[in-house]
Amino acid sequence: MIGSLTSTAGVLAADITVGEHPRFKVFGLGVNRDTLVSTLVAGAILIGLGLIMRAQIKDGVPGKLQLAFEGLVRYVEEQVETAMGLKAPPFVVPLAVTLFAFILISNWVEIVPTHENLISPTSDINLTAALAVLVLLCVHAVGFRTKGAAGYPKSFMGPPYWLIPFRAIEEIAKPLSLALRLFGNLFAGGLMIALIGLLPSTVLWLPNVVWKLFDMFIGVIQALIFCLLTIVYFSFAVSEEGH
């Protein structure tokens, strides 16, 4: 029994790696092939669902997809109105809805049956970091547009001056929090599926099904958290009180 456990531990140590992806180079830059393919598939699914919903709208009878999307938009609108009110930039709701839908599909794309198994692209820190940077660039752009080139920096540099270092740490923590939270949860889900895959085939199906359902639930929660934090960061950028 001890020998079996030791052998299993050796398999785990040898086969389960962190941050390793099949790669190719474009203009000298390394690109993670599996992340790129999964991201393109997730984007294609999102666009396809949008086209299907558009066709349903033309029919005049709202389908389940349209009702679900309208419910999501209504929920996001309520969150934006609560956080920002009339100061909300018009693109915040579309951005938050798109981020939620894309991240949710990316979290779930690994369940799509393919010849070569897809991964959740959100389990790659490169994608989650890119999404976080995109959000924070939009947030700061809105802040400068709302308060001006002189007024917006005062949100960070104004009195009390002893808080300036803590405000700097907060701004650094925002993209890290967005990127690492999403990456960590999705990577952990993929790691658990890899661990479950080492179980004997006679009992593999039950824990695999249970964990995948739980992983899908976590995918919804993480997409929602990313969406809500995006709204919160925009509310900080337009608020008069500052950070």
Task: Explain what you see.
The protein has 243 residues and is mainly alpha-helical. The protein has one domain. Helices cover 75% and strands 3% of the residues. The protein has helices at 2-15, 33-59, 64-84, 92-108, 125-157, 164-196, 201-238; strands spanning 23-26, 29-32. The radius of gyration is 21 Å and the shape is globular.
**What is the β-strand count?**
2
Q: Roughly how many Å is the radius of gyration?
A: 21 Å
Task: List the uncertain runs.
Answer: 1-14
**What is the percent of helical residues?**
over 70%
Give the class from helix and strand content and strand pairing: mainly alpha
Shape: globular
Q: Give, in order, the helices and strands.
A: HEEHHHHHH
**Overall mean pLDDT:** 78
Beta-strand content bin: under 5%
The strand order across the widest sheet is 1-2
Individual helix count = 7
How is the biggest beta sheet arranged? 2 strands, antiparallel
The separation of the N and C termini measures 58 Å
**Overall tally of domains:** 1
